[in-house]
Amino acid sequence: MKNNQQRVSAEAIYAQFPPLSINSIFHMFLMFIGFGLLVVLVFSQLNSSNYNFQSISISSSTFSLLPSTTPTNPTNPTTLPSLESTLSSPPPPPPPLLVPPPPPASSSLSQESKNRVNNGAGSKEFVKPPSANHGMDDKVLLHKASKVPRVSQQASKKVAFLFLTKWDLPLGPLWEKFFKGHEGKYSIYVHSDPSFDATALPASSVFHDRYIPSKKVKWGEFSMIEAERRLLATALLDVSNERFVLLSEACIPLTDFSTVYNYLMSSSKSFVEVYDQAGHVGRGRYSYRMRPHIQIEQWRKGSQWFEMKRELAIEIVSDVKYYTLFKRHCKPGCYADEHYIPTYVHMKSGRSNSNRTLTWTDWSRGGPHPLKLLRTDVTIEGLKSMRQGNCEYNGRSTDVCYLFARKFHPNTLDRLLRFSKGALGF
Ligand SMILES: *[C@@H]1O[C@H](CO)[C@@H](O)[C@H](O)[C@H]1NC(C)=O
């Protein structure tokens, strides 16, 4: 039963797969020889013409989404893919042809080239000024600033706005509006109380990162001159700063940025107020201990709020002789901030000075302090009239005499912001 079943299945297999005859084996042998000959022929044909390989590889790469590249040197056998990889596997990644040899890792390379592009585009617009927080002490800073180039970078001259403040900048939003859209034409430096925390300022603020290393300042004392020189020296380190304006937190601009910029850049003179005054608030503050270097006839007075050229700023930060005399002999009763720079300018570079200030101040009430303007004092007509006067500009008379004004109480801000377009032009 079992044998019978085995025989039946064997017969079925034979019926399906009959044993090979001599004839069919010979047939298969001939076919094998023929196929082998064909393979040998094809390979010899392909080897004799490398270009055929290359054209196959290019046509296959056109199906991929990878960026197409120009073919590699077809005579270089090392870049040739095998017939198998060309026909069955996806095309090889494009060789790094746009990259100078030897090619570094592709990720660091793309980052590198990205930076290069960014730098190139950035230099066409403006170069961000170096951080105001230089970390130098006064001695190192002043020494460095006294050695800077006297002529500023011609291509992108800037006005340095030096804010000498007691604490914060309550009128900051007005200044933000003033500076908006004029990036690359100004630099800002702020000297505040050393305990003031400027890190809370948003990165979008023009005052962000513009606070310089500061020391305690006592109003009317010599520490004020030290702070002014600290501001000037820091600003001098940026070779594109050409003009330097000193302002307080109570100052406002009286006109738009472009007018201020052109007025300062086109002026042949500095605007340091210098005058000779008799009486106890003038010559009366002179000390005979300053002889023989400073005579009473040379003693001058003027507003602390200056605007000066680069050359003069370098002279001021480089001065040791007069600075030391004032530090020693101009003690309370004598206010160095009203005498040191005016006297120095009169003695050293009077001819390149206009002798007037650009900062409007109301002294009409008299006394040691100017009028402080409150909210209701601010009117469009009032602001407009503050620019007006009768003064000299580059040897000609003009009625535009003031570009800045003080002193404005913090509660004037909302009115100033509302009136700025109509009264100040921005
Ligand atoms: C300013 O004063 C100086 C003297 O300190 C004088 O030489 C100069 O001519 C004055 N400048 C102007 C514009 O009047």
Automatic annotation (TrEMBL):
<feature type="region of interest" description="Disordered">
    <location>
        <begin position="66"/>
        <end position="134"/>
    </location>
</feature>
<keyword id="KW-0808">Transferase</keyword>
<dbReference type="Pfam" id="PF02485">
    <property type="entry name" value="Branch"/>
</dbReference>
<dbReference type="GO" id="GO:0016020">
    <property type="term" value="C:membrane"/>
</dbReference>
<keyword id="KW-0325">Glycoprotein</keyword>
<keyword id="KW-0328">Glycosyltransferase</keyword>
<dbReference type="InterPro" id="IPR044174">
    <property type="entry name" value="BC10-like"/>
</dbReference>
<keyword id="KW-1133">Transmembrane helix</keyword>
<keyword id="KW-0472">Membrane</keyword>
<feature type="compositionally biased region" description="Pro residues">
    <location>
        <begin position="89"/>
        <end position="105"/>
    </location>
</feature>
<feature type="transmembrane region" description="Helical">
    <location>
        <begin position="20"/>
        <end position="43"/>
    </location>
</feature>
<feature type="compositionally biased region" description="Low complexity">
    <location>
        <begin position="66"/>
        <end position="88"/>
    </location>
</feature>
<protein>
    <recommendedName>
        <fullName>Core-2/I-branching beta-1,6-N-acetylglucosaminyltransferase family protein</fullName>
    </recommendedName>
</protein>
<dbReference type="InterPro" id="IPR003406">
    <property type="entry name" value="Glyco_trans_14"/>
</dbReference>
<keyword id="KW-0812">Transmembrane</keyword>
<dbReference type="GO" id="GO:0016757">
    <property type="term" value="F:glycosyltransferase activity"/>
</dbReference>
